[in-house]
Specification:
mainly alpha, 110 residues
């Protein structure tokens, strides 16, 4: 019996990892296939927020490249740290807070 529970836990963690790691693609997969799984959807919303962040950083980088290239680089580093934190949290098996991302993700109703 314990191996069955651990396999379910592993499956839950992998679903959440996919939902957060692949940002918008993971969100779409989660909303189509795993909508009833609250844990996966929690991290799928994080993936959606990270995707929106990617779009905003790209937009800022394309508009202000000559003036603020250094700022865009700092934003990408900050985004990458948040992304790694999110998928590490998803693999933990527990719902964990990710700086800024969780606050925004909790406002999404799907």
């Amino acid at each position: 019996m314990p191996s069955k529970i651990s396999n379910l836990e592993k499956e839950k963690n992998i679903k959440a990892f996919i939902a957060s790691f692949f940002t918008i693609i993971g969100f779409i997969i989660a909303i189509i296939i795993w909508k009833e799984d609250k844990y996966s959807m929690y991290y799928a919303k994080h993936g959606l927020i990270l995707f929106i962040g990617q779009l905003l950083i790209t937009l800022i980088g394309n508009i202000f490249v000559p003036m603020m290239h250094w700022f865009t680089i700092l934003l990408w580093i900050f985004w990458a740290i948040l992304w790694v934190m999110t998928w590490m949290n998803a693999l933990s098996g527990n719902i964990k807070y990710t700086f800024i991302i969780t606050d925004l993700a909790e406002k999404i109703n799907v």
